[in-house]
Amino acid sequence: MSLCKQYYCPILSFLLCFLILASALKVGNGHNLEKQKPTNKSSITAVYIFGDSTVDPGNNNYIKTIFRSNFPPYGVDLPEEAPTGRFTNGRLPTDLIASYVGIKSLIPAYLDPNLSLKDLITGVSFASAGTGYDPLTAERNKVIDMATQLQYFDEYKKKLQRMVGKKRMEYIIENSAVVISCGTNDIVYTYVPNYLPQQPDKVAAYLHFMLDQNHGFLQALIDRGVRKIGVVGLPPVGCLPVVMTLHNSLYQPRSCIESFSSIAKDFNQMLKRQLTTMQASQQIATIAYGDIFEPLQDQFYNPNKYAQSTLEPKAPKNSVRAIFVFGDSTADPGNNNYIRTAFKSDFSPYGRDLPSHVATGRFSNGRLSTDFIASYVGIKELVPPYLNSSLSIEELMSGVSFASAGSGYDPLTPTLSGVIPMSKQLEYFMQYKSRIAASIGQEKTNELINKSVFIVSAGTNDFVVNYFTLPIRKRMYTIPQYQHFLVQNVHQFIKSLWDQGARKIAVVGIPPMGCLPIVITMASNNSITRRGCVESQSSVAKDYNQLLQTQLNSTQLSLQDQRTRIAYIDVYSPLFDMVQPSSNSNYSFEYVSNGCCGTGYLEAAFMCNPASYVCTDASKYVFWDSIHPTEITYYLIFKALRSVIDYIIKD
Ligand SMILES: *[C@@H]1O[C@H](CO)[C@@H](O)[C@H](O)[C@H]1NC(C)=O
Ligand SMILES: *[C@@H]1O[C@H](CO)[C@@H](O)[C@H](O)[C@H]1NC(C)=O
Ligand SMILES: *[C@@H]1O[C@H](CO)[C@@H](O)[C@H](O)[C@H]1NC(C)=O
Ligand SMILES: *[C@@H]1O[C@H](CO)[C@@H](O)[C@H](O)[C@H]1NC(C)=O
Ligand SMILES: *[C@@H]1O[C@H](CO)[C@@H](O)[C@H](O)[C@H]1NC(C)=O
Ligand SMILES: *[C@@H]1O[C@H](CO)[C@@H](O)[C@H](O)[C@H]1NC(C)=O
Ligand SMILES: *[C@@H]1O[C@H](CO)[C@@H](O)[C@H](O)[C@H]1NC(C)=O
């Protein structure tokens, strides 16, 4: 998943150009600004932002509105639009800009009550997701309209004057750069629902109205002492996910709605002319137009060109050399493709949202948390399955996954599904080591293993597929006894990895099992209408996780090696949070108890197949099929466990 794919990059590159121009700095010289004396007339003192969600760093967190997430014009593939997720709500472009020009690393929301003095002096964003040039747009969406943003700016100036004095305040404003990004919501939420796009005279009249509003706004800024203004045009509105979703038939392939995009194109032409005229009619302020239409359109039609660009977070510098993964479908990138089992996913719609759009054998629409971790640590974008015999020595050396969908810590579990047991995964790891040693020698192999991260993720199948479903283990063990049995097996497994040289080991707990769509379906009396989590099963997961943590601590102690790091990874809490109704969740998924594939109640593996109905926008779903998370969920889980990864990879 690339954060840059949808909206950010073009806006980002425009802002960069604009600010570089505005500050008369040469490219690449940005960092020096920080050290420059404020007396340098040509440098930017502050950055102010006005507009909508493209540039709102979170003002809407402080007002009553539903316009906090799931909202265009982003791809909405970005979970972080939710107000609590950090680099969200347009934080990304503005933040990068601010740090690029060296002013600060974040442009904070003006309404944030905790702004420091320095924050205020170097600029804030007044933008509000959901707003538009048309006051009606903001009113409907209950967000901050442009006139109020301007009022806030006045209020801000007074505050600034109290802090630094009138002269200094005027100097800061005069040497600041202002960026305005707005208009999409007017078209999507106000114009289109009220008039049909086919009525050309009405379109033109509305666009003129928007431009008049913008003209007034620019003039007001100039009157207030602003001298450098950049105005961002509209994106290809017809290619925005929300527009495509609303106006395409569900069963058609997604495509841009040309009639909508052409409205945006017309608007941009008119805006450009307006800005040129305004620039020509006065000499005091510099006004620039930023085109994001063409680059975005290009991205939509040529997505592969952009697939590599990524702004995902990166770990601090570290010496980790490789990543090794063991476990079940949460970590299997396709080992099951090479064995005889029904637990496979090497067919569409699996893998639909991978850059290659190819079903790799990952049980999701895209990447797994382990892929995101590998990328975060700086190793590779995808962790390949060990059983692919075509992997090059280089690919092998940066790590592989031995995991097998359907596996578990109880040896009976993989037997039921005909998949690779944990013991066999360990054997494969030993085989792997000999292969590497044959190529680079024993000593270097040991060093490689010593500096690698190990991730172990299993346990759910032991309960869902085995204990809860079949009588065998139930006859032998009570639930607490079975939990204990599993945790002992985890201990054995970790100990064996350690004996093989592993020193950085993360063990993933199990999710709230009672919230898996398939479990809800099986346990509920009316599986269509009653889809709350099955508390009894989740609490088994909770107890198991507790036991696991205690065991990992004592495993760590028993090894008597200060350099070894064994950590527990909690997936229970983030997932539990995600499946709550959006009103009391930190996330805002629309579908939390059914998957994107098929009915979402039952289908997984071969039942989710090329003939299945599949939802258009998987990012609205916590689950991809009835058991496995979507890519976005895996990404959010990865984000929630970053601090543990940081701990593990420390030298
Ligand atoms: C002020 O900015 C100009 C133009 O970028 C630069 O050449 C000059 O060195 C700067 N002066 C100071 C004192 O930083
Ligand atoms: C602002 O700071 C106070 C005190 O540090 C804290 O209690 C509060 O939660 C903060 N508010 C926000 C919105 O960050
Ligand atoms: C196996 O690995 C090779 C080398 O990376 C790759 O080209 C190939 O696509 C992989 N095979 C499958 C089925 O993924
Ligand atoms: C692993 O590396 C550390 C230092 O990088 C070293 O102190 C330790 O002895 C190594 N352990 C093994 C088992 O090679
Ligand atoms: C299902 O129905 C049975 C019998 O009416 C009842 O005992 C049970 O609690 C119900 N289960 C759920 C999950 O509602
Ligand atoms: C395990 O150890 C960690 C770190 O020492 C500690 O924070 C945690 O509370 C311990 N957990 C249990 C269940 O003992
Ligand atoms: C949301 O996140 C906060 C802070 O991480 C956490 O304390 C809270 O429990 C979460 N909310 C829910 C519903 O889980």
UniProtKB/TrEMBL annotation:
InterPro entries: GDSL (IPR001087), GDSL_lipolytic_enzyme (IPR050592), SGNH_hydro_sf (IPR036514), SGNH_plant_lipase-like (IPR035669). One of its GO terms (molecular function) is hydrolase activity, acting on ester bonds. CDD domains: SGNH_plant_lipase_like (cd01837). Coiled coil: none annotated. It comes from the Eukaryota. Residues 1-24 form the signal peptide. Keywords: Signal. Belongs to the 'GDSL' lipolytic enzyme family. This is Uncharacterized protein.
